[in-house]
Amino acid sequence: MLNQVYRLVSPRQIETQTVNENLGTDDIIVRPTYLSVCHADQRYFTGQRPPQVLSKKLPMALIHEAIGTVVRDPQGIFKVGDTVAMIPDTPFEKDPIIRENYLPTTKFRSSGYDGFMQEYVYLRRDRAVKVPDDFNLEMSAFLEMVSVGVRALMQLKETMDADDQSLGIWGDGNLGYITAVLAKSIFPDTKLYIFGRHQEKLAYFSFADETYVVDSIPDDLTISQAIECTGGAGSAIAIDQIINHIKPMGTAILMGVTEEPVDINTRDVLAKGLILQGTSRSGREDFEKAIEILSASPEAQSYLQNLIGITKTVTTIPEIIDFFDMDLANSWGKAVMHWKV
């Protein structure tokens, strides 16, 4: 069957390309409905990735956060019309130790492989997770990012010592907000501190116990565990502050993506016996856990719906490009396209 794929061929240039798709017995066909833009997509769209990376990965359809409607399942496991969250990573092997999102052979959509900006997505059945009927669809569009927050918090839970008195999250953007909302469900008795650069964004974290602008953190403030959600140039400062304020033997989970290496004060890491652990992306179990947490907590769903930023129905390639530009000018929240291209 011929399928239309909307690929980025160079920065800010998207073209329709027709591909021939074959439906295997383990595959389903999904019509994308709501697509959420990630900073990673914007780095490709605006050409911020190094030229050698762009030349290797383009042309490529963007977007790895999306839901869609099942239009065909040869095995009838999914019903036609079911809404599913599409998992962007596709593993080709199993390992008893290494999770699917860290396996070198796993393909990740919108990072070297076509993402979800397609007329139809031919998806391996185990890469789809049914979305409950009562979930807000625009919020569900960024369930992938929620699952990434789940992975970080579960990794922290598996690694940290017994001190769960307080958790500090550095980052007042989308990822920091999602992780903070989830932390209130996973660590309900832990004091939650948020550290950010923008007072107006910190105001959204009304459910946290305390918020601090990063240049006004009290010298004597200590935290038990920490998560870094800043990325970019802010990572180095955030990691340094975490090392300064975390208690000995604490664990810091690093989530922020940086294009350049950052300096780390290893002297204090060694002196305090800290654990610094990276986390990236997520797997099927994290999607399932995210849906489990949100199903049990209408309050968490409500907070995440506050993160829905700009939304727009797109029907043409110029409208897709305009939407990416609108997202660049948006200071808060997730940008969600209602996909009718």
UniProtKB/TrEMBL annotation:
Named cofactor requirement(s): Zn(2+)
Keyword Transferase assigned: no
Keywords noted in UniProt: Cell wall biogenesis/degradation, Metal-binding, NADP, Oxidoreductase, Teichoic acid biosynthesis, Zinc
Domain Glucose dehydrogenase C-terminal: 143-309
Function: Catalyzes the NADPH dependent reduction of D-ribulose 5-phosphate to D-ribitol 5-phosphate.
Family: Belongs to the zinc-containing alcohol dehydrogenase family.
The protein's name in its UniProt record: Ribulose-5-phosphate reductase
Species name: Pediococcus claussenii (strain ATCC BAA-344 / DSM 14800 / JCM 18046 / KCTC 3811 / LMG 21948 / P06)
Lineage: Bacteria, Bacillati, Bacillota, Bacilli, Lactobacillales
